[in-house]
Amino acid sequence: MKKGLLILTLLLITSFSFAQKDFLAGKWKYEKISDHIKIDEQGLKMANDFFKDMTLSFDQNNYTQFAMGKSESGTWSLINESTYEFNSSKGYKYEVIIKKISENQIIFKQKNREWQLIKSDQKATIKIQQNSLDKIEGLEIIAEDLFGKWFYNGRIKDGKESGLILKHNKEEVVNYEFKKDGMFINNAPLDIELIGIWRIEKDRKTLVIESENKTEFIKIVKLDGQELHLYNPKNESILKFKKNEK
Predict the structure, then answer these.
(1) Other CB atoms within 10 A of residue 205 CB
(2) Cα distances (Å, whole numbers) of residue 25 to 34, 56, 76, 123, 136
(3) CA torsion 84→203→142→166, rounded to 10°?
(4) pLDDT confidence bin for 36, thresholds 50/70/90
(5) How confident is the model over 229-244, as pLDDT tens digits?
(6) CB-based burial, 147-184: b 16+ in 10 Å, e otherwise
(7) Most buried residue among 45, 56, 101, 209 by CB atoms closer than 10 A?
(8) Which stretches within 52-160 are classed as H helix?
(9) Gap between the terminal Cα atoms of the chain
(10) Exposed, middle or buried, 146 (CB in 10 Å: 0-12/13-18/19+)?
(11) CA triplet 52, 128, 15: central angle to 5 degrees?
(12) How confident is the model at residue 39 (pLDDT cuts 50, 70, 90)?
């Protein structure tokens, strides 16, 4: 009896998953900000101007999202009834909530943003892109060698070096801090502090940084007592850090 119920449950879950894939397949475009969101007339006009070109296309496994002049592609999977995991080819993954409100309308919620999308008659265009992280060999390390604070020291993109030093505030250069207890602190530009959790993948070459809304994957390409180089697939560049600020 229990075995039969288990099989039935698995069949229902599988059927639901396929139904969701069939429903989402196609191209969706921005319709409006969700009705329940409180926003004044000026804010609504600005939002409509920002997101009027937003589109989201799905096939059975892949997605392409276009918004505010930027495109992102990757794979998607259903976690539960309305929560989906998006794995971007730019080296990060995150969860979104998608709710069906009619046969051709959905609510799409990402972080603290929420839009109502309507299905388009246009053919979906899916760009299947390889994660550039897979092209980078990386360097095997031990986690203890990352402990401490590392200060931004420029970047390398397309083989060209930039010595521009970004500042966290007037007194301090942008920096990453890896704590022994697994806490990660990013003292970013404009006096912004971002906090997450860090770990090293089993390959000992990939740095994983988890925050409330996103999981990022970064390849370690250089690490010694004084220098740290990290390849970030999000902007396809190597970020350089040094141990001492001065």
Answers:
(1) 19
(2) 22, 10, 11, 10, 32
(3) -50
(4) confident
(5) 999 998 899 999 999 7
(6) eebbbbbebeeeeeeeeeebebeeeebbbbbbeeeeeb
(7) 56
(8) none
(9) 70
(10) buried
(11) 85
(12) confident
Q: What is the pTM of this model?
A: 0.79
Digit-coded pLDDT (tens) for 168-200: 999 999 999 999 999 999 999 999 999 999 999
What is the amino acid identity at position 200? I
pLDDT value, residue 21: 65
Task: Summarize pLDDT for 135-154 with one digit per residue, the tens.
Answer: 899 999 999 999 999 999 99
Listed as own residue / partner, the contacts of 29-32 with beta carbons closer than 8 Å and 24 or more positions apart are 29/54, 29/55, 29/56, 29/117, 29/118, 29/120, 30/54, 30/55, 30/115, 30/116, 30/117, 31/105, 31/115, 31/116, 31/117, 31/118, 32/115, 32/116
